[in-house]
Write a structure and sequence with these properties.
By secondary structure, this protein is mostly helical. It has helices spanning 3-17, 22-31, 35-57, 62-66, 68-95, 109-121, 124-137, 144-177, 180-205. It is globular. Its main location: membrane. It is found in: Cell membrane. InterPro entries: LeuE-type (IPR001123). Pfam families: LysE.
Length: 207
């Protein structure tokens, strides 16, 4: 695989990463609470992308393309998970409404990392993206598994950088504003968006 092909694929991944999706709002939600939690969720999302790349490389993700029922099930489960995250985040923001401004909320980093990974793993569009796009960048005489994993690593790196930047900017904005009411509003809005995305995903899956 040439450097030009890798750069072209990275550019495509960057364009897709800039399109707001569940991962973006998930990282935003965690970053508004704690920057480290947002970055941990970003790493989890990148790990999820790598796992999808491995699934494509070994042919497992092809089942999604061949089975509409499997695709629908994963999509519904992913939607339910987003609803769960959104509702949990909203309830957490209500419970913490009275805490002091300078008292940082406690968020377990491994929990946010797992949330980022699970959110990506339960998004079948990631797997279908690799199924549709990766073969166009892999030379016919090249090692399919190795090249697919390489492209997966590129996609994971691009997503990690973008989501980490979102995390840092969001957390810095909260520190700069230093207004608990504004912070709570942003937390609840991001939680509501997560839940709405989950409901929308479920609705489109059962039509």
């Amino acid at each position: 695989m040439t450097a030009a092909s890798i750069l072209a694929f990275a550019g495509l991944c960057a364009v897709l990463a800039l399109t707001p999706g569940p991962d973006t709002f998930l990282i935003l939600r965690y970053s508004l609470v704690r920057m480290r939690a947002g970055i941990a969720a970003s790493i989890g999302s990148a790990i999820g992308s790598l796992i999808w790349a491995a699934a494509v490389a070994f042919g497992l993700a092809a089942l999604l393309e061949q089975s509409a029922e499997a695709y629908r099930i994963i999509k519904i489960v992913g939607g339910l998970y987003l609803v769960y995250l959104g509702v949990s985040a909203f309830l957490a923001s209500r419970r913490g409404a009275g805490r002091l401004e300078l008292e940082p909320p406690r968020v377990r980093l491994h929990s946010s990392l797992i949330a980022g990974a699970v959110s990506t793993l339960l998004n079948p569009k990631v797997g279908l993206f690799f199924l549709a796009v990766a073969p166009q960048f892999i030379p016919q005489d090249g090692a399919a598994i190795g090249n697919t994993m390489l492209l997966g690593a590129v996609d994971a790196l691009v997503a990690l950088v973008y989501l980490a930047v979102v995390s840092v900017l969001a957390s810095r904005a909260v520190v700069w504003l230093r207004r608990p009411r504004v912070t709570k509003t942003l937390e609840r809005v991001s939680a509501g968006i997560l839940a709405a995305l989950g409901v929308g995903t479920i609705a489109t899956s059962i039509e």
